[in-house]
């Protein structure tokens, strides 16, 4: 049985870093990643508030929804940023930025 996850899919775009560190991925967040992160967190807070109206637990429900949204939004932004660095998503901006700085994988 093959357990190597890199063998299952080949990058379609230029690879900047095959195994990017956490700080590199977070540092690579772009405006769209932050917008997705904030939108998901905001929608989750709203859904949490609305779902807590009937049972009368608006506050705790809103906080729980917000925490779930923050975690989910961060994971979604992280996935997109890491995918661009590893060459699985379109990454023209990252390629030009890292080539100017002289970084290579």
UniProtKB/TrEMBL annotation:
<feature type="transmembrane region" description="Helical">
    <location>
        <begin position="59"/>
        <end position="78"/>
    </location>
</feature>
<feature type="transmembrane region" description="Helical">
    <location>
        <begin position="34"/>
        <end position="53"/>
    </location>
</feature>
<feature type="domain" description="NADH-ubiquinone oxidoreductase 21kDa subunit N-terminal">
    <location>
        <begin position="11"/>
        <end position="89"/>
    </location>
</feature>
<keyword id="KW-1133">Transmembrane helix</keyword>
<dbReference type="InterPro" id="IPR019721">
    <property type="entry name" value="NADH-UbQ_OxRdtase_su21_N"/>
</dbReference>
<keyword id="KW-0812">Transmembrane</keyword>
<protein>
    <recommendedName>
        <fullName>NADH-ubiquinone oxidoreductase 21kDa subunit N-terminal domain-containing protein</fullName>
    </recommendedName>
</protein>
<keyword id="KW-0472">Membrane</keyword>
<dbReference type="Pfam" id="PF10785">
    <property type="entry name" value="NADH-u_ox-rdase"/>
</dbReference>
<dbReference type="InterPro" id="IPR053229">
    <property type="entry name" value="NADH-Q_oxidrdct_subunit"/>
</dbReference>
